[in-house]
């Protein structure tokens, strides 16, 4: 029970900070009230559905997530540059590819983070999520490189669960 209280407090803190940062409303009492209601409702539903656990609070090690988001930001910039270069070529050398990406992530947080990270990276979209992997659409064969996906999953695992791969 003590751990769940800690997870609940951390989840509340994360939700409040996220709402404040994304809304930008710091001085309007009515909107702050709505924000507080949204946080309480989300926390209440999380508790009621029995979802309050270590997996629902990925902020136990925020430094890992900050490092991951910094790394992912760099990957997004590199992929943006690549996609712009490909689309600006006179011969438009784009060859859409569908590829299966094997996933070894042992928990839902890591799997969801991995799938979303693929989609956030320009030129790739996670089309389907299956038990053993993802179906990914890529603009070119180079963006569908299995080694790049393995590297991304290693970074996700390091951030989400401390690098313990299955």
Overview in brief:
The chain is mainly alpha-helical. It has helices at 2-23, 29-48, 62-88, 108-120, 146-161; strands at 97-102, 124-129, 133-138. GO terms for molecular function: monoatomic cation transmembrane transporter activity.
Count of folded domains: 2
- The order of strands across the largest sheet is 1-3-2
Question: Structural class of the secondary structure composition?
Answer: mainly alpha
Low-confidence runs: none
Order of helices and strands: HHHEHEEH
Give the number of helices: 5
Shape: globular
Mean pLDDT: 86
Strand content: 5-15%
Give the N-terminus to C-terminus distance in angstroms: 28 Å
Largest pleated sheet: 3 strands, antiparallel
How many strand units? 3
Residues in helices, as a percent range: 55-70%
Radius of gyration: 19 Å
Plain-language structure description:
- The protein has 166 residues and is mainly alpha-helical.
- It has helices at 2-23, 29-48, 62-88, 108-120, 146-161, and strands spanning 97-102, 124-129, 133-138.
- The protein has 2 domains: 1-49, no CATH class; 62-161, no CATH class.
- The chain has a 3-stranded antiparallel beta sheet with strand order 1-3-2, covered by helices on one side.
- The model has no long low-confidence stretch (mean pLDDT 86).
- It holds the Pfam family MNHE.
